[in-house]
Design goal:
By secondary structure, this protein is mainly α. It has 13 helices and no strands. It has a domain of 75 residues: Serine Threonine Protein Phosphatase 5, Tetratricopeptide repeat. The longest helix is centred in the middle third of the chain and has 21 residues.
Length: 231
């Protein structure tokens, strides 16, 4: 008599947990196609050291927890290009679904950070550097479009617009961040940085004073003060 599907799934998971990979694989092969089966196959591939197959199966299963951990693992080990490719796959998967806009916004925000990391690894005069900087800005802009009042996303987008010398756009973004969170020191220092890059030192110094009054030990305050060459 065939085992009921839920029981076979439980047995396969237990076999995988105890390292009985062949037994787990046999049980997995007997399961009908489903996200649970895909996640099980992902676990098997991971246990065998085949991280490419594991990523493919977990992605198809929609197991974002493992995928996000794998992105972090790849990035931490210096394999930023691979982390970037996997994060793009996560964003594409979530974009197809569109049922979790907050999760997609966070995935786009993470994609922006990884694009920036890859830009930093690419010499500034190489064509790829600018491409990654632009891609980071687009990823942050998508995150902001999905969560327009999230101060963290707005600050990231504003800073990236500064990196791209889009000073008018950056000023508007930092103003939106200030409106979203009137206590945001990073919004004030961002406005100061944009003003300084436009050549308006007086306005930049005013924003620095406002930011310093709120958080004198903030890193962004110290950075703006150094750029203004003020104590």
């Amino acid at each position: 008599m065939p085992l009921p599907e839920p029981l076979r799934l439980v047995l396969a998971r237990e076999a995988l947990r105890h390292g009985a990979l062949d037994l787990a694989a046999r049980d997995a092969a007997a399961l009908r196609p489903s996200p649970d089966r895909l996640a099980l196959l992902g676990g098997l591939a991971q246990a065998r050291g085949d991280y490419a197959a594991a990523a493919r199966d977990y992605l198809a299963a929609g197991d974002l927890a493992w995928l996000e951990g794998e992105v972090d693992r790849l990035a931490a080990s210096g394999r930023v290009a691979q982390a970037l490719a996997l994060q793009k796959s996560i964003v594409a998967r979530l974009t197809e679904d569109r049922t979790e806009p907050d999760v997609l916004a966070e995935a786009d925000f993470d994609l922006g950070r990884i694009e920036q990391a890859q830009a930093y690894r690419t010499w500034i005069l190489f064509p790829g550097h600018r491409a990654h900087e632009v891609a980071a800005g687009r990823a942050y802009a998508r995150a902001v479009a999905l969560a327009p009042f999230r101060e963290r996303y707005l600050i990231a987008l504003g800073n990236q617009q500064l990196n791209l010398s889009e000073l008018v756009a950056a000023t508007r973004t930092f103003e939106r961040a200030r409106d979203a969170d009137p206590t945001s020191v990073e919004a004030l220092t961002g406005l100061g940085d944009a003003a300084l890059r436009r050549g308006d030192r007086a306005t930049a110094a005013t924003y620095l004073a406002l930011a310093r009054a709120r958080a004198p030990d903030s890193e962004s305050v110290h950075i703006l003060a150094r750029r203004l060459r003020l104590p």
